[in-house]
Amino acid sequence: MAEKRNIFLIGPMGAGKSTIGRQLAQMLNMDFLDSDAVIEERAGADIDWIFDLEGESGFRKREEKIINELTQSQGLVLSTGGGTVVSKDSRNALSARGIVVYLETSVDKQFERTQRDKRRPLLQTEDPYQVLVELAKVRNPLYEEIADITIQTNDQTAKVVATQIIEMMDNLQ
After folding, report:
1. pTM reported for the whole predicted model
2. So where does substrate get bound (predicted)?
């Protein structure tokens, strides 16, 4: 891969975007950023605090601004939040400025990976599994809409998935 094109990882919470993103960036000798971590750093607060104070809509406005800014970088592996694709502006920025990789995973696997994680505000509810089902109905078609590459992450290590992404990107060239 002669040029370092941006690689944007999208997919639901628990798909492995951050873990796979770090692995991929290391393998390609590229910078890695996690949009949620950047939002927290800039706000000086955790995402759940932002949700409590500003609601989901306030958080999404912050996210849209960060995605627009970060996607203008070069040579970046960017892990996005699960809900990033809800914003049409964010979807457009991602698809126009890099290779979009959809890390697809089942709701069962998401639930398994996130059930003990208290830092996911949308899952702090009586029935987090049902929340994941509802989010998948809305978001999965949006992930598919902008994906250049789709990879199933259910039962694979981060290194295996990162290797597959590199191979598939080489085939895109």
Report:
1. 0.93
2. 36, 60, 82, 139
